[in-house]
Amino acid sequence: MARCPRAVEEITTKVAALTKTHKLPAGAGDQLDAAKQMWTDPSSAFSSGTLSDAMAKANEVKDKLGALRTMLGMKPAA
Prior knowledge:
Layout: H1 3-20, H2 28-38, H3 40-47, H4 51-71
Helix pairs in contact: 1-2, 1-4, 2-4, 3-4
């Protein structure tokens, strides 16, 4: 789960760069905001001790971030 915050940071940087050049794909900013908000779910589940729920929710965020990376023309996360 530690990869998601780093991925969010990388995508945020890319969104900022594309925003400056006016080449940000439609909806990308909204999807990034949604992914950031979604990240609270696995964090909360982990804190409450429901690890399987935390992993499932983290995978949902990971999938959303992967789709966003593709939309922005970024390479898949390593």
